[in-house]
What we know:
Blueprint lengths: L6 H28 L10 H56 L5 H22 L4
Amino acid sequence: xxxxxxxxxxxxxxxxxxxxxxxxxxxxxxxxxxxxxxxxxxxxxxxxxxxxxxxxxxxxxxxxxxxxxxxxxxxxxxxxxxxxxxxxxxxxxxxxxxxxxxxxxxxxxxxxxxxxxxxxxxxxxxxxxxx
Length: 131
């Protein structure tokens, strides 16, 4: 039995091969122009899903880094406030010890009381500070 391939069959195969090559050329040209290997999900579904998951993880990491930065700044501000409050508390404590020594007159004790009250007001203001 002799297998004969007709001219029409050869022609059709040639046209199909040319279309395939033209589609491949267009796809490769698009990839080269865009700088991306994957232009649509259908180019490589598995790689597309990996890219989507990687981008999601990168966004999560950026959000995490932003949150850590904000928390660090807030803790630094709170640390500064605590240092100030400690200073005012120490001042009030020292004034209270001075007042307890019973070597001051009434006017001096009133002045110490006023200073202690001011320290307490300042500490309350520091405690109410919003970041």
